[in-house]
Structure formats: C-alpha cells, structure tokens
Amino acid sequence: MTSPNHSKPILRAALGASLLAFAGGAAWAEPAIFKGADLKQGEQLIAQGKCTQCHASKVGGDGSAIYNPKGKISEPGLLRGMVEQCNSTLNLQMFPEEVTHVAAVLNRDHYKFK
C-alpha cells in the first residue's frame, strides 16, 4: 500500500504542466531533454551529415519512413539515443549538444513528443 504523500509530487507535476500549457496557450510543450536546443544548428547538422540521403537509401522514397519505426522510438530519450547511434556508427563526430540539437529538430518535425 502506498502512502498518499507519494502521489502528491506526481499530482503537482501534472498540475504544473497543465497550468503551464494553459497559461502559455501552447498545445505543444518541449520535452525537458531538448530544452535550449539550437534548432537552426540542428537543421544545419542534418544537412551537413546528409541524413536525409542516408535514410532514403535505407527505406526508399524521401527517407521519412525511417522516423516512425513500429514502437522503436517511443520517448524523447530514445530519439536522442538513436541520433547518438547514427553519430557513432557513421563517425559524424558531433558533440553531445549537437546530437541534442539534431534530435530536437527530428522531434519538432516528426515525433512531436511532449
């Protein structure tokens, strides 16, 4: 049996998030992992790394089908991890904050995690 005190922080966090979304009038809130990400730099890194071309070679078409693998990427941390995997596998030599910038762009454009 859990104490009622254990649920209070969760309720406060949920209420706080709801109030922030309502007060800001925004329907979409940026996940904490992507706070402060430089979206412009992320877009540039995607272009420099030829991500779209690589993805198109793997899944065909414009490559966008790669962004919704069935159940594989289900939260922001897994998205960032997948970008890090591409970074390591392809030896793109991105710094950790650059990986975050790229993942934030992918979240904005494809995943829309809140």
Which SSEs are present, and which pair or pack?
Elements: H1 4-24, H2 39-48, H3 51-59, H4 76-89, H5 96-111
Helix pairs in contact: 2-5, 4-5
What would your notes on this structure say?
The chain is 61% helix and 0% strand. It has 114 residues and is mostly helical. The chain folds into 2 domains: 1-26, no CATH class; 31-111, no CATH class. The two termini are 31 Å apart.
> Structural class of the secondary elements?
mainly alpha
Give the end-to-end Cα distance, rounded to a whole number of Å.
31 Å
**Can you write the helix and strand succession as a string?**
HHHHH
Which quaternary structure do these chains form?
A: single chain
User: Which regions have little confidence, pLDDT < 50, spanning 5+ residues?
Assistant: 6-27
Rg calc: 17 Å
What is the count of structural domains? 2
What coarse outline follows from CA principal-axis ratios? globular
The biggest sheet, with number of strands, parallel, antiparallel or mixed sense and barrel status, is: none
Nearest-integer average pLDDT: 81
Estimate percent helicity.
55-70%
Number of helices: 5
Proportion of beta-strand residues: under 5%
- Counted beta strands: 0
Offer a few descriptive terms.
114 residues, 2 domains, 0% strand
Quick structural gist:
This protein is an all-alpha fold. 61% of the residues lie in helices and 0% in strands.
